[in-house]
């Protein structure tokens, strides 16, 4: 089985096998722009000598605050990504709060490949992406990544430092899982 100390009646999970992360420092610049928009909206609301009427002021304040929050939270969610491979799954967590998060059981994985260059352009930008013909991806920066092929034929791609090591670990886990299956399955 996958548990240590099974014979003694205790069940202790296997340790994490591999962890990695990737960071996009350009996202901090975009987060600063979002913070500036938010500050402008607050400044307009608090200390405005707007003479064009309350409706125009309200639209400007709401527009600046909304744009600031969208830019700020949208960029901070994808400043960095953490990837963990353990005995059961590949887990991807984005940003400081770990949201969005994706957990893929290794039982659903049929293969893993190293991609030397994954670009935001291939996926339509930074962030959590979906393309019907490719699958899904978490792209926080340009560079190396892991491409996992799922049982349904689609892929999951994530940009992460030391992606080659992650691919080796996933392939080893898949081999171990395959070795434990009875013949004919």
What coarse outline follows from CA principal-axis ratios? elongated
- What oligomerization state is this entry in? single chain
How can the largest sheet be summarized?
A: 5 strands, mixed
- Show unreliable segments: 1-7
Alpha-carbon distance between the two ends: 17 Å
Radius of gyration: 22 Å
Share of helix, binned: 25-40%
> How many individual helices?
4
- Overall mean pLDDT score? 84
Explain the overall architecture:
The chain is built from 4 helices and 9 strands, in the order βααββββαββββα. The longest helix has 23 residues, at 54-76. A hairpin with a 6-residue loop joins strand 3 (89-94) and strand 4 (101-105). With 185 residues, it is α+β, with helices and mostly antiparallel strands. The radius of gyration is 22 Å and the shape is elongated. Helix 1 runs antiparallel to helix 2. It is 35% helix and 30% strand.
